[in-house]
Amino acid sequence: MGAAARWALAVMACLWLAWCTAVGPLYWEDSSIAAFGWPNALYGVTAFVAYLLIIVALVRRGRREPLFGRTSAAPAGALTPRRFPPVRPGSGHDATVNDVANGSPVTNETNKTNGINGTDDPAPRTRRARRTAAARTGLTRARMFLARWTVRLTDRRWKIWTILFAGWLWVPTTLLAAFGADLRSQAREFSWAWNQWTGLKQPYIGFFSFAPMDIYPTAHYLWPADPTYLTDQHNIVLTLWYGSTMAASRHLTGSNDWGVIVLAAVQFLFAVCCTAATVHRFLNLPWLRRWDVRTSRDDFAHPERGLSVRPRRFAHPEMGTRPALPPQAAHAGVRLAVLLFFLVCPLPVFATISLTKSPLFAFAFLWAFGIWYELYATGVLSGSRRTVIRLPRRTFAAFAAANCVMLISAKYAWYVLVFEFVLAILADRRRWATYVAALLLPTVLIHGGISLAVSSGRIIGGDPIESRGVQLQMIARVAQRDPDSIPDSAREELAPVFNLDQMADAYFPQDADPVKSSGIQSKKVSYRWRSVKPEDMKGFNQAWLEIVRANPVVAMDALMAKCYGYFDIADLPYVSMDYYVNSDYVQHNSTWIKYVNHDWRDWVACVAKSWGSIPVLGWVTHGNCYVIATLLIGAAEVVLRRWRALAWHLPLLLLMGVMITAPANDFERHMLPVAFCFAFLCLTFHRDSRKAADGDR
Polar residues bias: where (predicted)? Predict the structure, then answer.
């Protein structure tokens, strides 16, 4: 029953992915599931079979079984001896092969013996064999040379940091910065608050006034009695950091542009440090080196413990020694693939300078993800020795810092951290103090401090309507496509909160922000944020249920049109990361950045978009490709009962839930954490499979 339940979960994941793939073409044409036909069914069946086969292949790989056929009787990990063709006695083949291998000349008698009829001269074939052997030897030596130097250039954190810094340096130096509307809103909020602090009177509440809190509208009943212009819409700490930097830039230079460049440069350095630290942890496993040095001390009486050093050149011992790589460290091919992803893929490249909350959260999440792996790996070591391996002080400080950056960059981060804390206590309760100090304490201090500031009226909290994007899209789509089906009782309940006619006019299938009246002053006022009261929202859920029951097909269309793209491999992103590179806010609304490398930014964004538009080859540049692959690996881990690994992989699944409830469909910046961690997820799956085969679990 347990195996059946685990496979049922895997099948459900495949069914969800297949469903999103099947309905994708319908929503590309702004159609409905009512038009679902045989072509869509064919897409769904094909996707389901493909995804299920991938999970089966991952499971068999995880069990060290062949992909096809039954399991071999040979023990796991055993090498199959290489088979050579039989040598006929007296054929002279063994002598010729030995002579060629030893470099000795072949006699005429041997040539005659090796001839097909005893008369052909095999000298041309011998020369070809020698040339082929020489070519193979040269390729092997070149491959070994490249592999050796790839490992040598990535066996230390500072080397990886240097490679990433040099490889990404063209981004901040030529593109300068990338940003959108959120940054301008944060600058406006801080500017109004600064004016208030310096004694400049500004309109606060009034029907004709338009304060920063009205851009991403916050209901006026949430405003405190004493005027304040700071909100928690984009997280107050990030708003203060961005806003103060740009305010200082305006004071010193007369524009925001230098401040924007400084912010992009700081985020670039943060991205390099986070990525280098995580790549180093996964590729080099530094804690194994620390553990080996602490336990073996180069104990030559116990060679099974390994040595912490090895000769630089075995043929030249006078050159001294160098630290040895742990035996489980990644090989050259894996190292090269990981570095190529971070250096070439547009997702991490553009995220380094994109000044919005999601990239900052993604790099901090990646930083913490590497430390989670160290906790996971050292938990296995401590379990075998009945001891608790604690994080070094420097690593513990990095873990706490990464969680703090997540908390100040995204409001939903505290859900992720609390979820991680619960899973960590269940999976590794012996290190509960580490999780309390690095996870729970920052969450209580930062999130609790922001909540206290909101309750005291020092800042304005977010509007609860922000979490109702799915419901709003359902109501708006029904109001646009079939308004007559809305019951009168639902209209009466919604009248104090929403203007249904404006909702229908503002409805856009892939984005819920227009329905929430988010945007500039000329927006459509579908959400009555100026006049709505808390008691007006009491009947909202009941009205929504009535509308869904009255027209379930259109309501389901609204749900799927808002989230299917995150799980449809063929769907192009609604907003890709290249948007921030050449957005109007960069290219037209900035003071002088728009004149520097204007055409170059357009060209870079065009190249990235063109690459992403290529079928199959462009999938690697899209976040939904990594979301789908992560979900498949997670399903395989469930089938394989790798519960400890799932304990620190499940937050990735929680982030997928955040994507579904996000305002927009297939918004790439929401998928950055999953995309950044995917390569390391694959590496962990491979290592766990080898441990299971060797009986180390």
Answer: 99-117
